[in-house]
Amino acid sequence: MTDVVSLYVNDGLPEEEIARQAALYGPLAEDIRALIPLGISSRADDDEIRRAREHLAAATEILERRRDSGPFGTRFNDAGHFRTWGNAAAGLRNAVAPPLEVHTDPDGRVWTDFHLHIGYEGPAGHTHGGVSALVLDQVLGDAARVGGSPGMTGTLTLRYRKPTPLGDLHAEAKLDRIEGRKAFVTGHIAGPDGICVEAEGIFIAPQWIADARAKFEAQD
Ligand SMILES: CCCCCCCCCCCC(=O)SCCNC(=O)CCNC(=O)[C@H](O)C(C)(C)COP(=O)(O)OP(=O)(O)OC[C@H]1O[C@@H](n2cnc3c(N)ncnc32)[C@H](O)[C@@H]1OP(=O)(O)O
To answer: Where is the Thioesterase domain (predicted)?
Structure first.
């Protein structure tokens, strides 16, 4: 099993290098993401598909020449700039991610306006329920972190109130309370006609995080 702690790496990258990599690899993920709905909707003919696949094979051959092994993990530098570029919901380098760009209000509410293309379909013309769970897991988890209690999802409870359309959506979440290592968070996804999915989550700081925080506070 992958050791979670070993995937938290201070790689010491300077800010300029992080910005350079973001400007290089972010657009690559956008290009790959744009292919997903085309894979579903293209009406190209036999010859066009064959040619398109040859181009994709050539791109694959270039991209796999040099690559990291394993997941991206969580990387950071001495300035405390964290990168979770492989994250399935928000990762800058992950074409599977919508991606979510999560904002924080001064009162601790976190929110994101995001777009789900046709590759996120579940019920005909609507968002897959598991994708809604992905979005809410991320947004509620961010609210726990912003509220000072980052943790792993222990329990995520969803109420699907009405079908969630595809397209432009909004999600938000707020920390309700902290009890020991547990953060209780609520949130929802809304479409143009109001709230579609409500969520309650309990996020639990693993013991190693609680220990690290206690050690840090003892040094203060
Ligand atoms: C890393 C940084 C994040 C950073 C992550 C940022 C990513 C953003 C969001 C994405 C989040 C994810 O997808 S996370 C991936 C999905 N989640 C997971 O894979 C989690 C897998 N489960 C685990 O690793 C573990 O079960 C934990 C960490 C959740 C809990 O283990 P533990 O730390 O040993 O817990 P334990 O001592 O038994 O219990 C502590 C307290 O929590 C309660 N408790 C225990 N389990 C649960 C539970 N599932 N639901 C509710 N409550 C629970 C206990 O009753 C107890 O309450 P009391 O007696 O104290 O009252």
So the answer is: 125-189
Q: State pLDDT tens for residues 79-94.
A: 999 999 999 999 999 9
Residues in the ligand 1 pocket, defined by CB under 6 Å: 137-138, 141, 150-155, 180-182, 202, 204, 206-207, 209
Predicted TM-score (pTM) of this structure: 0.94
Residue with the smallest CA separation from ligand 1 atom 4 is 151
CA of 202, closest atom in ligand 1: 51
Question: Ligand 1 center to residue 43 CA distance, Å?
Answer: 46
From residue 76, alpha-carbon distances to 67, 71, 79, 199, 204 in Å are 19, 15, 8, 30, 22
Residue segments in the chain with a per-residue pLDDT below the cut of 70: 1-5, 220
**Interface confidence (ipTM) of the complex:** 0.95
For 105-213, CATH number out of 3.10.28.10, 3.10.129.10, 3.20.20.370, 3.90.870.10 equals 3.10.129.10
